[in-house]
Amino acid sequence: MNTPITSAPFASGVVVYCRAGFESEAAQELDAVAAQAGVIGFARTERNSGFAEFVLAQQGAPDALQRLLGWSRLSFARQSLAVIGQFKGLPREDRLTPLLATLPAGFRVGDVWVETPDSDASKPLSAFCRSFNNAFVQALKRDGAMDPGSPWRLHALFPSGERCLLGLALIDHAAPWHQGIPRLKFPREAPSRSTLKLDEAFQVLLSKSERERWFKPGMSAVDLGAAPGGWTWQLVRRGLHVTAVDNGPMEEHLMASGLVVHKREDGFRYQPRQRVEWMVCDMVEQPRRVAERMAEWLAMGWCKRCVFNLKLPMKKRYAEVQQAFAQMQDSAAAQGREIEIRAKQLYHDREEITVFAQER
Ligand SMILES: C[S@@+](CC[C@H](N)C(=O)[O-])C[C@H]1O[C@@H](n2cnc3c(N)ncnc32)[C@H](O)[C@@H]1O
């Protein structure tokens, strides 16, 4: 039996998970996206907590919030939940009862995830989360509050043992990974750890159907700033032919695949002879310079789509990202075109974000 969405409890706000140290960017983004969507409230954060909140001026419907302030719309959020309960001073001997009391009678969830933010302070709670998760599931089953057909997943986020934010996620609109982190194993044959960044970008920024359609053996790609070849390796793994542009050396095993041509050229000047399916770029440069170059590749039709990294070592990181995106849209608009941009600070990104772009 499907749980009707209308039976969900009201939400007091939204909580997003983010990289520790980037709470301010996550909050600025929540403020900006909420303002665009006409959602009234304010964002708040605690430094290095690994999460940011948007507090609503008036309680709202969780399903509407999931659509307006959802995970996929936010670059600095790994997960986004509608908050239905906030608890401080939870008693150690019985944390469950107050949490269970938040759920209205008859409301059912498909799953429950007990999580901590990805912060140093919360790490020691991992074992507690696992055992509390089991207890939570048992209690909900006992109360008849679990239904595999429900569109909702319940999340209990514990920044500390006594504090909990209870949230709801519409399963189809939320990040499908615990803590919003896809667990990727480093492939030993890959030339560098940055390989995980591009793999994660494909998992997070593309849908399953896009991955199936957009990577086919025999397709071609260009990798700007390719050495030693971690990103090229991901493309080769999917059967693509890659032109790797970098003055630095490429890893020998990768070159032996026969699918890579290495060009020792400047990535800011290189032009392909023919249109390629993919261009990827991991050159360390100012975001605006990279964005300008990406816009040029799309405008000239040199690639169908691209993935690139924007390094953010500066203070005003959110403003810098917005500036780079505006610049890309402006240069496309000047030619009567429009660019679709999807961006995320990935788990494997440090002071940077990863962006997917294509012409609409
Ligand atoms: C972060 S590393 C790339 C790592 C690579 N994505 C991997 O997975 O192994 C940045 C690379 O960009 C290259 N690079 C920087 N500026 C460049 C330019 N103007 N043209 C070509 N390559 C450049 C550097 O030589 C360096 O190898």
Automatic annotation (TrEMBL):
Residue numbers annotated as active site: 311 (proton acceptor)
Originating gene: rlmM
Residues covered by the Ribosomal RNA methyltransferase FtsJ domain: 192-284
RlmM ferredoxin-like domain span: 13-81
GO cellular component terms, A-Z: cytoplasm
Subcellular location: Cytoplasm
Name this polypeptide is given: Ribosomal RNA large subunit methyltransferase M
Function: Catalyzes the 2'-O-methylation at nucleotide C2498 in 23S rRNA.
Oligomer and partners: Monomer.
Annotated source species: Tahibacter aquaticus
Enzyme's top EC category: transferase
Gene3D superfamilies given in the database record: 3.30.2300.20, 3.30.70.2810, Vaccinia Virus protein VP39 (3.40.50.150)
